[in-house]
Specification:
Oligomer: single chain
Helix content: 25-40%
Largest sheet: 4 strands, mixed
Strand content: 25-35%
Shape: elongated
Distance between the termini: 15 Å
Number of helices: 4
Order of helices and strands: EHEEEHEHEEEH
Number of strands: 8
Structural class: alpha/beta
Amino acid sequence: MPILNVKVSANRSPELSRQIASLLLDLTSRILGKKRELTSIAIDYVHPEDWIVGGKTLHEQGKHSVYFDIKITDETNTKAEKAAYIAEAFAGFAALLGDLHEESYIHVEDVRAAAYGYGGRTQEYRYQHPAS
């Protein structure tokens, strides 16, 4: 049941949104083993003139950037899986956007099962009551 909040330095387009969603759905299901049908993705576009790294806009630097966080239930993925996910996500965004700034961030956030849920039920409740 992960949720991904994505900020990308680009002009909004339905095609780019589809490509980002496809990339993240693939990585999230393939590497982290999360169910595609329970994965949510929210994408915000930030114009490169409004994204500043080291005192200069990305537009001035001729680069793109991305920041996204993904919330997953704690203890459901290994360090190696999370490292592979971050590496492949960075490479995937570099392929989509072009010259990706090194200062692009991906945050895999382990959230306690008792403090995280959807549909009005926590992940801990779902674990304790699998038929619900």
